[in-house]
Structures are given as structure tokens and as C-alpha cells.
């Protein structure tokens, strides 16, 4: 509720740091959108429908999505009359950004003989935009659809008529998705790029009929329409708790809108996106904070036991291959929330590896300084140091092989999948196969078109 007279004087500039408590918030939280409090110096750039960027070349039409470090918009490239995805990074994340360098490096290799380029998102343009919260790096990409799990969720609702969500794709479709991702990984790795955040949210579907889509087919949502609440389902008004005008935040937050029909499977080719965590292998790879979900992190990444390289992506791909065929996560670690203890989450992940994939080798246990909480000295026997006994150690049930055989009924195919996963999930990163070596397995031969 506005305080009478409180909007007569302008509000102070918010600090770049996020508020430590809700008592310091300027706005009411808005669900299903980016954190409204992140619209502050160093944070998101406020965007409205109809806004123009880069000398009026790109006009914002709709919102596609958002992440911790950027918002993504459907835009029209007026110069060439086509639709694009416009990614606007936070001002803080635009400083010393490496994503654009990696993407430009990949663009120079697209005409080479390295297979898989069509399975990695293509950068079309980049520029900087000055706004009330700072200078923002803007990346223009080819337009793609939803990530594969959003497609699965939408398809589940349309086909089942209920809130029950299918946990996995039919096996032939899962296999084809994985083959597409492998091809994209091969292109990245052959060009010396480590993705660093390989997860389903970064596997995007193509859009059916995009080549024939005309600007007249999509209505440009205007600022005036939003102001008049003609788009009530697409936007939520942003108001300060004190009633003052806020120049750092937009007038409304737009809800992401899907461009993919909800009653269809992913449109191929699938493409790997979001190279914000990517690194060139030729650069000096110092220890950096991982951004991928903890359950997809390799043991050497958690324990910083080996220089970063392409094999961390291979481990993540192995975890995802299990997930696509079984319909559940291989290592089900709770997500890292604000205030969570990263050490406890890492311990959970390593313990699950130990129980599901097999005992961790001695060289990793030595690096795991907290392993004494869970194992007796000189022993692989589980041990709870708080009660000096095995009680309290969760039993995670069957190992990886048993879960695969339960989900994949054909014995020979299950055996091939297990063999591939054992290679990819080798505790020794130097013994994991490359994406190209994985693709050479005859398992992928009958996946259909790539």
C-alpha cells in the first residue's frame, strides 16, 4: 500500500547488492518471472514490449525466458526482416564477458569439416546497450524453441489432460535427442570449447515452420497495449511498496511465452545453447565456481582434483543419458538454494556416487577432506561420525546397472547402455571417451535423421 505523499520525492539509488532480508525489498515478489529486486545498478536492464535496440534495428516483441544473469526476448530484426532471440545480460555479468568470445570463435569454425555445428546455437550479432542499471552486453541468436523438458511438460499436459507429467520421452525420441547433443558436443570439443553447464534446460528445440514465418504472423506487443492492461495474462505490474516511481525497474514484468505447440514432440535439430559458462581449453583454466546443477558435476570438478577440460561435459552427458532413459536423475542432489551449505551438497553428491556408481578411488578420497565424517579410517565402510556407527547413512537403493535394466527391458540394449555409461562416468577423467568416440558406437546408428 502506498504511503500518502511518499511518492513526491524520488527514491534513493538502490545499492548493487541484493537485499539481505525481505524488509529491505522495494517490491512485492512476483512468481514465474525473474527476481524483480535484481533490477538495480549492475542488474537486469528494464525492457518493455516495443522497445528498440542497436540503432532501432531490433524491436522487442515478446519474452522468451530469463536466467540469473540475463533475460531473453523474441525480437524482430528490422534490417533483414526476420525473427531473432535477443539475450540481454545483467550489467555486472557484461563486464569481462567470455561468452561472446567463445561464440565468435565457434562462428569462425562453422565452415570447417567438423561435424555438429548445426547442433550448437549460432550467434548472429552482439552489441552493448546503456541503461539505468549500467552497460549491458546484448547477444542476438537464431530463434529457437523451448528446452526439451519444457516441451515434455507441455506435451504431457496436452496428451494426458491432467497435471501428471511424463518423466521421460519415448526411447527413440530420447535417443535422437542425445545423438543431437553428442553432435553438438563434438563440435564444441573439437574446437577447444568446454560447455561447463550441460543440462536439459540448455537443449533447445527448433521451431516448426520458422523459415516460412513472416513478421505479419506475430503481433508486436506495444507499450501502449501493456499500459492499458490489454495483455493482463502476459504481464504483471511492478509497483514499489512505498508508491514511488522506480527508474531502475520496468513498469511490468513480462511472463515468458512459448513459441512451440504444446501437443508436439521436440522439433529437430536439437541445439545446445547458453555458453555463458563455457571456456576455451587453450586458455589457462584456473579453478572457477561451477554453475551446473550439483548432481551433474563430476568428482574432479567438485574436489578440484584435475584441470578443467572437456571431460567434465562427458560426465554430465552420462548423467543426462541415464536420466533420459530411466526417467529419474542418476544423482538426486537437492538444488543449491540461497543459504544452503555447498559442502553438504557436495558431500551428498559424492556419497551418492559411492553408493550408485561404486566406491570412490583412494586418490579422490584423499582430496575429499570431509570423507572422515562418512567412512571409517582406512575403510570403505559407511560410518556416521556423529553417532560413531553406520546408523543414519541413507540407503539409496539399487545401483546404476539395476536401474537401467529395470527401465530398459531389452537385455542386449540395456547392456550397451550400461557399457557406454560406465565409460562416460569413469572416475578417472582421462579415461572417459570423447564425444566422437561415443558416437562411433553402433548404438546410435538407428536413431533416424540427425
Nearest-integer average pLDDT: 86
Largest sheet: 6 strands, antiparallel
What form results from the Cα inertia axes? globular
Find the CATH topology of the largest domain: Transferase(Phosphotransferase), domain 1
SS-based class: alpha+beta
The number of domains is 2
Our measurement of the CA-to-CA distance between the termini, rounded to an integer number of angstroms, reads 56 Å
Q: What's the tally of helices?
A: 11
Name of the CATH architecture of the largest domain: Orthogonal Bundle
Reading off the top of the CATH hierarchy, the class of the largest domain is best stated as Mainly Alpha
Unreliable runs? 222-232
The run of helices and strands is: EEEEHEEHHEEHEEEEHHHHHHH
Secondary structure blueprint with pairings:
Layout: E1 52-53, E2 58-66, E3 70-77, E4 82-89, H1 99-107, E5 123-131, E6 134-142, H2 148-160, H3 171-190, E7 193-194, E8 203-206, H4 223-227, E9 235-237, E10 252-254, E11 267-272, E12 279-280, H5 299-303, H6 311-326, H7 342-357, H8 362-367, H9 400-407, H10 411-424, H11 435-439
Antiparallel strand pairs: 1-2, 2-3, 3-4, 4-6, 5-6, 7-12, 8-11, 9-10
Amino acid at each position: 500500500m502506498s504511503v500518502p505523499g511518499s511518492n513526491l520525492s524520488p527514491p534513493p539509488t538502490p545499492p548493487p547488492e541484493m537485499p539481505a532480508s525481505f524488509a529491505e525489498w522495494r517490491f512485492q515478489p512476483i512468481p514465474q518471472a525473474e527476481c524483480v529486486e535484481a533490477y538495480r545498478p549492475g542488474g537486469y536492464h528494464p525492457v518493455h514490449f516495443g522497445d528498440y535496440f542497436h540503432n532501432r534495428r531490433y524491436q522487442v516483441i515478446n519474452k522468451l525466458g530469463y536466467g540469473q544473469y540475463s533475460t531473453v526476448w523474441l525480437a524482430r530484426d528490422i534490417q533483414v526482416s526476420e525473427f531473432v532471440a535477443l539475450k540481454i545480460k545483467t550489467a555486472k555479468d557484461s563486464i569481462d564477458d567470455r561468452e561472446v568470445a567463445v561464440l565468435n570463435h565457434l562462428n569462425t569454425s562453422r565452415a570447417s569439416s567438423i561435424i555438429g555445428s548445426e547442433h550448437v546455437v549460432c550467434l548472429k550479432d552482439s552489441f552493448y546497450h546503456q541503461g539505468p542499471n549500467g552497460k549491458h552486453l546484448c547477444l542476438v541468436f537464431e530463434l529457437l524453441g523451448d528446452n526439451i523438458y519444457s516441451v515434455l511438460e507441455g506435451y504431457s499436459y496436452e496428451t494426458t489432460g491432467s497435471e501428471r507429467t511424463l518423466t521421460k520421452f519415448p526411447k527413440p525420441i530420447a535417443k535422437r535427442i542425445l545423438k543431437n547433443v553428442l553432435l553438438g558436443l563434438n563440435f564444441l570439443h573439437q574446437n577447444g570449447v568446454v560447455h561447463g553447464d550441460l543440462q536439459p534446460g540448455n537443449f533447445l528445440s527448433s521451431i516448426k515452420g520458422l523459415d516460412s514465418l513472416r513478421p505479419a504472423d506475430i503481433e508486436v506487443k506495444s507499450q501502449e497495449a501493456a499500459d492499458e492492461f490489454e495483455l493482463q495474462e502476459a504481464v504483471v505490474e511492478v509497483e514499489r511498496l512505498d508508491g514511488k516511481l522506480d527508474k531502475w525497474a520496468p513498469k511490468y514484468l513480462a511472463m515468458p511465452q512459448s513459441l512451440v505447440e504444446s501437443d508436439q514432440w521436440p522439433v529437430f535439430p536439437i541445439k545446445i545453447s547458453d555458453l555463458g559458462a563455457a571456456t576455451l581449453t587453450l586458455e589457462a583454466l584456473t579453478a572457477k565456481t561451477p554453475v551446473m546443477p550439483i548432481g551433474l558435476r563430476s568428482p574432479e570438478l567438485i574436489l578440484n582434483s584435475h584441470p578443467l577440460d572437456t571431460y567434465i561435459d562427458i560426465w554430465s552427458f552420462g548423467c543426462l543419458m541415464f536420466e533420459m532413459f530411466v526417467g529419474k536423475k542418476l544423482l538426486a542432489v537437492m538444488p543449491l538454494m540461497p543459504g544452503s551449505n555447498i559442502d553438504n551438497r557436495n558431500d551428498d553428491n559424492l556419497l551418492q556416487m559411492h553408493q550408485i556408481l561404486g566406491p570412490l578411488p583412494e586418490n579422490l578420497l584423499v582430496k575429499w577432506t570431509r570423507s572422515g565424517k562418512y567412512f571409517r579410517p582406512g575403510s570403505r565402510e559407511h560410518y556416521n561420525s556423529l553417532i560413531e556407527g553406520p546408523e543414519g547413512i541413507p540407503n539409496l537403493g539399487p545401483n546404476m546397472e539395476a536401474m537401467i535394466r529395470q527401465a530398459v527391458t531389452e537385455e542386449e540394449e540395456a547392456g550397451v547402455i550400461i557399457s557406454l555409461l560406465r565409460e562416460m562416468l569413469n572416475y578417472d577423467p582421462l579415461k572417459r571417451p570423447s564425444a566422437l568416440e561415443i558416437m562411433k558406437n553402433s548404438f546410435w546408428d538407428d536413431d533416424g535423421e540427425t
